[in-house]
Specification:
The complex is a heterodimer of chains A (216) and B (361). Chain A has helices spanning 27-34, 38-60, 63-79, 90-121, 142-148, 151-161, 164-175, 180-187, 191-213, and strands spanning 124-126, 129-131. Chain A is an all-alpha fold and 216 residues long. In chain A, strands 1-2 form a two-stranded antiparallel ribbon. The longest helix of chain A is centred in the middle third of the chain and has 32 residues, at 90-121. Chain B has helices spanning 3-15, 20-30, 34-52, 62-84, 88-121, 129-134, 145-150, 155-165, 170-178, 190-193, 209-221, 229-237, 259-268, 357-360; strands at 124-126, 272-278, 284-293, 296-305, 311-318, 324-331, 334-342, 345-350. In chain B, strands 1, 2, 3, 4, 5, 6, 7 and 8 form an 8-stranded antiparallel beta sheet that branches. In chain B, β6 (324-331) and β7 (334-342) form a beta hairpin. In chain B, α1 packs parallel to α3 (34-52). The longest helix of chain B has 34 residues, at 88-121. The termini of chain B are far apart. The chains are: A mainly alpha (216), B alpha+beta (361). At the A-B interface, α2, α3, α6, α7 and α9 of A face α1, α3 and α4 of B.
Amino acid sequence: MNNETNPLAGLSYNKEVTGIPPADDDAGLVTRSRQGDLDAFEQLVTKHQKKMLNIAYRLIGDYDEACEVVQDAFVSAHRNIKTFRGDSKFTTWLTAITVNLSKNRLKQLISRQGHEAYSLDDPVETNDGKVTIDPLSKDPSVLDRLERSDVQSRVQNCIKALDPAFREVLVLRDLQELSYEEIGNLLKLHGGTVKSRLFRAREMVKDCLKRVMGEL
Amino acid sequence: MKHHVIRHKLSEYIDGSVTAGEKAEIEEHLQTCTVCIDALRELKKTVEYIKAVDEVEPPAWMTQKTMAKVRVEAAQKQGFFHRLFLPLHVKLPIQAVAVLFLAATAFYIYRNIQPTAKFGEIPTEQFSPEKKAAVPAPRSLEPSPAVNAKGELSKAKDSSLRSKQVPQTPEYKALDMRQEYESPPAPILEGKAAAPAPAPAKPAEQPAQAKKEAALDKHAAAPHTAAPAMIQNQAESAAGSSQQAESKHESLAPEQETKGLLDRREERSNFEKVIIDRHPNGKPKLIASYKIINSHKVQIAEERFNKDGKRHGIQKEYYDSGQVKTEAQYGYGKLDWYMEFYPDGVKRIGKTDYDWFWLKN
């Protein structure tokens, strides 16, 4: 079953809640890109790739995967740039694409990991009967690893430990400093849900940090 | 607000997203609630930690790699687009010109080939002057006293005569078909036959009929000087029954006639008219006109008459090249339609719905 979602589907990123189209510094480059100017699009890539990479990295938690996702996001943006009406900022539209692609990639990774864990942990049928395989890894637990990490790694790991639904709100708000409205538009969530998820995400990270760092 | 509500609002409070009223309530509550004060402090610290996380830098190759992917996809998209749509600005004019060229060519061929094809169907017979010279004076073409006396021929005889004498070419088949249109009637003869085919276009010719009849009567008595072998055979076999054959007639061009009419009459002056078939009452039923064109004897016209002598049926005229020049369909003396064939096409005048069908058969 393909549970991936179209990075452009169902997004209301073309509309700002205020109804007033925000001034977009990228408007000129976007216009040129829509006319097929690849140099202009390259400037957009250079300008926004870091921001998109950080969003993808914080959502996925894997640098290489995040790089792939960001590339895909720009390719997707270029493919669909003629559908971008300019009702919102280009960066908001691009962020929406990146978030959706990141969520898709995360689902794939979780599915792959879940499948592998299942197949390795389960007893295996042999000629001599069922044999239980030894645990996969003797690495320290997540908490043990967090203890050995510096603060940033611990924070990153705590963010990574969040459920994706909470993680994306936290990343967009506290790392990308988007407004509640923008987050709601990007993720198709009501304002109350955004606030509620953000509160719970922060509480979970706080608890996580308290566990790995002692007192805050 | 109750404690747990304020506790949940602390996250928004940090972001400054609460209303002024909520802010006042929260701050008032924080004066007394140590739990909320601790929670607020930890929450602020957590957010600080989160925001303090360093940003990762994109790899140096990222822009290049991204743009490479974008360019590949753009090239593929453009290639597909070019194949389907973009060439239109080139393809469309070329296709339009090609279609116009084909249409013009087809039209040109249609207009030129049709008369030629018809010419191919014209019943012709090699005309040999020697043969013609060897042939005795066309007594067969002279009026037959026997028939005149009887004044009637048997139909069976007529038809067998005709089947022997008339070559069964497509043109004659067509003629047979036309017989279906025939219906009984009232005699007139050579005078009408000599009338120019494109009658409606030249109404001035109609008044000349009486004069022509007089002229034709004169010529009917004259010996036929150039009867081809086929006609002679026919004349011989029909000797007992043929009443009369008309070889030539000359038009008496009245001075008031137009030059066109004069020309037309001049053309007809060399016609050789042969009665192919007769009605039982002896009146000519089918008269063919022949002309020598480029050493070929070419049938110039076929004219049909009812027993009252009124003409109906087809008449044709040819250019010297042998191409059909005019055709006319008569219905009991009245011209149904008339066509002129030019070397570069066909001009049709007149009316009818059955114009071409017999030519195709």
